[in-house]
Structure prediction request, 307 residues.
Amino acid sequence: MRGRIIKSTGSWYEVEDEKRQRWSCRLRGKFKIAGLKVTNPLAVGDWVIFEQEDKDEKQGVIKDIEPRENYIIRRSIKNRHQGHIIAANIDQAVLIATLAMPRTSLGFIDRFLVTAESFRIPAVLVFNKKDLLDEDGLQYLEQLRQVYEPLGYPCHVLSAQQEEGIKQFREMLQGKLSLLSGHSGVGKSTLLNAISPEAAQKTGEVSAFASKGTHTTTFAEMFAIDEDSRVIDTPGIKELGLIDMEEDTMGHYFPEMRELIGECRFHDCTHIHEPGCAVVEAVKAEEIALSRYESYMSMLLGDDSHR
Ligand SMILES: Nc1nc2c(ncn2[C@@H]2O[C@H](COP(=O)(O)OP(=O)(O)OP(=O)(O)O)[C@@H](O)[C@H]2O)c(=O)[nH]1
Ligand SMILES: [Mg+2]
Ligand SMILES: [Zn+2]
Prediction:
């Protein structure tokens, strides 16, 4: 049978078959994907081939994994030379951000976008908790929209609590598998609950744990919104860390800098101190947002103060 992993706890995988039935699966044998050093062989979003193990119960054994269209990895906490696959085969990565309570920094947003670029996954920005913003806040959001949308990152401004902008949010997810990401407290679960009855039920179950001091949720999990729209919630994942990025390729992950490739005097220009740098010229001419350039520099120089 063929199915898709919708949840993984490390030793067990919840798999949904093509008739949308749920199976509890184990992995037999080992899978090694060439060139990938990861702690988990399978991840949410993976398509697998499995066999029924027990005639009476929905239990199976995973025999094979289909080639991935893409995947998103973060550095393993245990071993910095290894990665942990967060999800595979996703159509878009959606960052839920807030300007207040908590504040998502521009550095964090740009890091997220660079990560998505490096995995060649389209990215979308969603600013939640609009209801907490005053005129100045709303105006600032409008400025951010003018920075990000021309770069190819759609921006949505909404309020999960006031149920404002939920319809557009839902439309943006329509027909896709979306990875939801964002700092703790930005409202990922609240948003999910507003659009997915399945998620509402599950997060309700888990929130009882929250009061006991454990994480609200620990594993990435896929939820159905409707027949052909799914989202993956990634609780407790603070950051989609970058893996081994070379100095001279960082600019490739900034679309506005990528556009200027070949226009700097030196072909291996890092856009920091070199004379005749087209990127620096564009920053001076305000064609590239200063905040984006600052993010680029702090990522390149490994300075984490912008996060
Ligand atoms: N004012 C306001 N509060 C909101 C809004 N959306 C969510 N909240 C509140 O923000 C808090 C955190 O929301 P959650 O949905 O639990 O956040 P989360 O992103 O799932 O957090 P983690 O599960 O820890 O990653 C809750 O108290 C929500 O009620 C909003 O649009 N406006
Ligand atoms: Mg949550
Ligand atoms: Zn340059």
DSSP finds eight helices and 13 strands in the chain. Residues 128-129, 131-132, 159-161, 182, 184-190, 216, 235 surround guanosine-5'-triphosphate (ligand 1) (CB under 6 Å). The first strand starts at residue 2 and ends at 8.
